[in-house]
């Protein structure tokens, strides 16, 4: 049974998170990547306790976390099972970290500025720096809107029209995020910690209305940018703008499986095709 559970990994003694949280993270990743498919029975509490070298109470706390997230259900006398419907908003960071456990990491992002991606990968990259994660290669592609050209969004709320000053503010945010991603990833290659690192950023002239992450070509996270009216400071003056709010946007998860007809597999394939089509046609180089 121990070998059968190898996909669940081991606990990290240097991780400050409690053992129950680490176990929950391992099981959550297995569920959302379909290593444990809807309807599958989870390993028993004694099996998980033996796997991770912890008390059963620790395993019970981990399962309670997943039950609270509606990822699993318990059946009296039968054990715990993956809930049949697991399509829900998810948190990106654990999946980014799981992606970095692979020898070859690929991340494709399409959206507004890439701020969320920059922040999400920073923790995984920190673990690479201290040797807790050790991928062989990292390749990142970032597809963002060119805020130096007229856009429908963001815009001045009063006129609902493009405003160069509003775009200039958005362009600074976009450039800061893109440069941060480039610097963080290439630094690992410069330090010799990763055999090969590549980061490529391209832009296009369409307003961003959604964000898309593709991890290792197998998982997709998709979310919509709500348009909100808010007041920001531009050249020291308060200005009401229609803005795109990306922070805390719910992301929905899709994973490819061995079933080519599954909803997850088809969504991942369609997302990859969409990204590659924009990347290879209307997108152009970023002058960093």
Structure description:
The protein is α+β, with helices and mostly antiparallel strands and 288 residues long. Helices cover 35% and strands 25% of the residues. The chain has helices at 19-32, 45-52, 56-68, 93-99, 115-129, 164-190, 263-280, and strands spanning 72-75, 79-82, 89-90, 104-111, 137-145, 155-156, 196-204, 210-215, 219-224, 227-234, 237-244, 251-255, 284-285. Strand 4, helix 5 and strand 5 form a beta-alpha-beta unit. Helix 1 (19-32) crosses helix 3 (56-68), helix 2 (45-52) packs across helix 3 (56-68) and helix 5 (115-129) packs parallel to helix 6.
Outline the secondary-structure elements:
Layout: H1 19-32, H2 45-52, H3 56-68, E1 72-75, E2 79-82, E3 89-90, H4 93-99, E4 104-111, H5 115-129, E5 137-145, E6 155-156, H6 164-190, E7 196-204, E8 210-215, E9 219-224, E10 227-234, E11 237-244, E12 251-255, H7 263-280, E13 284-285
Parallel strand pairs: 4-5, 5-7
Antiparallel strand pairs: 1-2, 3-12, 4-8, 6-11, 7-13, 8-9, 9-12, 10-11
Helix pairs in contact: 1-3, 2-3, 5-6
